[in-house]
Amino acid sequence: MTHDLGGRSVVVLPDLHGRSDLLRAATGRYPDAHFLGLGDAIDRGPRSLETVQLLMDLHAQGRATLLMGNHERMMSEGLHWYRQYQGTQDMGDYRRAMEGFQWWMRAGGDTVRREVNPLTLEAFPPLLEAYLAVLRRVVYVTGDGGIHDELPAGPCVLVSHAAPPVKHARHPSPLSAALWLRPFEGPFPMPENVTYSLHGHTPVPTPTRLGRHLYVDLGAYETGRLAVVELNVQALPHITVLAGPGRPELGGRYSRFGEPLQAYTEPLLGRS
Questions:
Q1: What's the CA angle centered on 115, arms 114 and 119, to 5 degrees?
Q2: Of all helices (H) and strands (E), which one includes residue 82?
Q3: Cα–Cα distance between 119 and 218 in angstroms, integer?
Q4: In the chain, what are the helix, strand and coil shares in percent, each to the nearest 5?
Q5: For a designed S-S bond to 108, which of 43, 114, 200, 202 qualifies (C-beta 3.0 to 4.6 A apart)?
Q6: What does the alpha-carbon distance between residue 186 and residue 109 come to, in Å, rounded to a whole number?
C-alpha cells in the first residue's frame, strides 16, 4: 500500500500515551501536515480515549497514518483471542484471551480503566477496536511525501515504533522486532537507500541519534515534552519540542546514548 500525499509535509508524532493536549497543540501548529503516529498513543497518560478519537478523526480525514506500538500490541492480544473464542467456543482460546488481557492490564492498560468502566473483553470499547484495525507496523517515507508499506527503490526514511524490522534472537519475526527492540539490542542493519530510521519506544532526555537510527520519545505523558519531527529524506529532520504541563526533570532518568540531535523548544503557555 502507498499513500500519495501530494507533496504535503509529513510530521511524526512519537509516543503520546494519552496526552491529547499535546496532540491538539501539534495539530494546531501544523494545520496542513500529514501526521505519522509512532504508536503508544494509549495508556499511562490521562486521556487515552480522547487521544485515540483525535487520531482516528485525522485518519478519517486522510491526514494521519497510524503505526502500532508495543502498548497497542498488548491491547490487541486479549481481544484477538476473545474474538476467536466467540467463533470457536474453545476454552483454550478463552484462557489465552484472559491471559492476554491481563498482560495489557499489568503493562499500562489498567490506566484506561479510569476512563472506561467497566473495561472488559465482553464490552470492549468500539473506538479502541476500530483503532487497532487501522494500525500499520513499518512504513517508508519518500521525498514526495509518499508513505509506503514496502521498501521503495529510491531514498527514503524508515519509520516504526521501536526499531527497524530485523530478525533477532528474541523476536524471530521482523515485524515483532519493530515493536520491541531497544537500541542496546542493535546494531540494526538497514538498506543503503534508507537515509535514517526514526523511532519512539525508548525514552530519551533529548532527541538522540545512534548511527543511522533516531530516537525521539521524550516521555511526553510525564515530562510534558513532545518531540514533533518534520521529516526530511535528504538530511536530518527538523525537530520542535512542544513543552506543555508536566515534570520535565523526570527526563533525567532516561537512557543516554549516541549523540543529541538539534531541537528547538516551544513552550505551550496557557495550555492544559
A1: 85
A2: helix 70-88
A3: 29
A4: 35, 20, 45
A5: 43
A6: 28
**Distance (Å, rounded) from C-alpha 192 to C-alpha 178?**
18
User: From CA 259, how far away is CA 208, in angstroms rounded?
Assistant: 6
Per the omega criterion (within 30 degrees of 0), is the bond before 118 cis?
yes
Contacts by residues 21-26 (CB-CB < 8 Å, ≥ 24 positions apart)? 21/47, 21/244, 21/245, 21/271, 21/272, 22/220, 22/224, 22/226, 22/242, 22/244, 22/268, 23/51, 23/54, 23/55, 24/54, 25/226, 25/242, 25/244, 25/268, 25/271, 26/226, 26/228, 26/242
C-alpha cell at 124: 470492549
Please state whether beta strands 156-160 and 194-199 pair in parallel, antiparallel, or not at all (unpaired): parallel
Please answer whether residues 203 and 218 qualify as being in contact, where contact means their C-beta atoms are separated by less than 8 angstroms.
yes
Specify the 3-state DSSP secondary structure of 14.
Answer: coil
Q: Are 208 and 10 in contact, with CB atoms under 8 Å apart?
A: no
What are the structural domains, with CATH classification, of the chain? 2-69+135-267 (3.60.21.10), 70-124 (no CATH)
Distance CA 13, CA 35 (A): 7
Across 49-57, average pLDDT: 98
141-152 mean pLDDT: 96
**Bridge partners for 196 per DSSP:** 157
Percent of the chain with pLDDT over 70: 96
Q: Is 182 left (phi over 0), alpha (psi -120 to 50) or beta?
A: beta
User: Which helix (H) or strand (E) covers residue 147, if one does?
Assistant: strand 147-148
CA distance 42 to 94: 24
Q: Are 75 and 106 in contact (CB under 8 A)?
A: no
